[in-house]
Amino acid sequence: MLMKHSVIYFSARGLSGVINLCAIAVYTRLASPDVYGQFVMILAVVEFLNAIMFQWIRFGILRYAQRYSKDYRVDFLNTIVVLFFTMLILTLILFIFVYLCSIDIGKWGEYWFFSIILLWILAWYDLNLELLRADLFPKFYGWIVISRSILTFTCTVMMLIFGIGANGFIIGMMVGMLFPMLFVMKRNWIGIRFPEINSTICKEMITYGLPLTITFSTHFLMVSSDRLLLGWLQGSSESGLYSAAYDLTQQTLLLIMTIINLSAYPIVVRTLENEGVKETKKRLRQYTTSLFFVSIPATAGYIILSPNISRLFLGSNFIEASLIIMPLIALTAFLQGIKQYYLDLSFQLAQRTWFQIWPNMLAASTNIALNFFWIPKWGILGAVYATLFSNFISIVLSWFIGRKIFVLPFPLKEILKIIVATVMMMCTLNSMVIYSGFLSLCAHIVLGAFIYILVGLLMKIGGYHRYFISTLDRIIRKK
């Protein structure tokens, strides 16, 4: 099941990722660094509020949807809807309070109305996606994700062509999320009796999700405070230059790690609920091997090919800065993914999410403090250094605390094999980096993947050679 779901999620997220990469290439050619910087700063605030106010509900869905998949299903859905609208009302009160207090927000005032609408749509869209994921509907999930990417890209390009500016990005995002949701509403919410609520389920959701909200919020501060502080200390243009390179890298590397987690986490939770810890450890070992199997070579390949990638996918105004920071951002993205999709499972599976707060809180505080010192000194590079250092701190603390709560398997032998295969791939690619262009990049990726997979099969990493042989055998038999 894990392999099947991984393939589906990879296809859906992969296609969506390609569309998003093309979108960045187009956006950075249609919008100036200043306009792009304004948008990413607005989006950073919206996503921060989304993390604080709504993320805990989505964590609860992932953790408890399998427990209430049959009995109390309607009660579970009712509780989710009531909790969502409660938080929606709280965000409305917050926005009205800020507006009535006449806080001076200068030129950002024109984005005020669009921002709160975007927040609500984004929160509801994410919630519906998590419900599909928790219920193990990867195909439906995939169609929604792909539809959003296509609609967002199309609408945003139209808005930018007409010169609407940062609001064009916001409108494009809203349209991209609204229409796909029309096709999922009936499936997700059939039979609900709003505003009924189950107090037991509500308590479980809050107890499990609230600590994760604090954790996720501090994690968000760690990964997004840099662009906000860059915009504040250096101007929105600097934030735009930094964010374009950062988003391009993250949407490539973290996407790959996200796909593995999307398919595996619900299965791991179901195994823990139904089969116990021993079987769960077996699933986790398989999951961990898969996570490192794709993330280590992807990060190494991205670092080597980053000059060609930046020239292909970013506008001319963005290239110079990206050439300097993209290799470091790639390493940062790898550290973020390992913490988020591996180390944090110790806290989540043991339902001891309060302990997850401390590594994130210390790392976020370190990141913000270092940004204040290093951005004035080194500019964009200072923001990258601060994020990289704080992520390293977060990983060390998460490992130290998590191993005392729920010991995660660490397949050292398999990871060493992965490193050897990655080094072989890097040696091959490093001799070809003098070639550039789209066809060259495609050739590099295909050749690198071929060398890595070939060495991986010969070394029998993770037992994937058995799956490869059985698949090949089925193909031959059909012929």
Q: How would you describe this protein?
A:
The structure is a single chain. This protein has 479 residues and is mainly alpha-helical. 84% of the residues lie in helices and 0% in strands. The protein has 18 helices and no strands. Helix 1 runs parallel beside helix 6 (138-161), helix 2 (33-53) runs parallel beside helix 10 (236-275) and helix 12 runs parallel beside helix 15 (380-402).
Briefly characterize the structure:
This protein is an all-alpha fold and about 475 residues long. About 85% of the residues lie in helices and about 0% in strands.
Give me the secondary-structure topology:
Blueprint lengths: L1 H29 L2 H21 L1 H10 L8 H28 L11 H23 L3 H24 L4 H16 L3 H5 L9 H36 L1 H40 L1 H37 L2 H28 L1 H5 L7 H22 L1 H23 L9 H19 L7 H21 L5 H15 L1
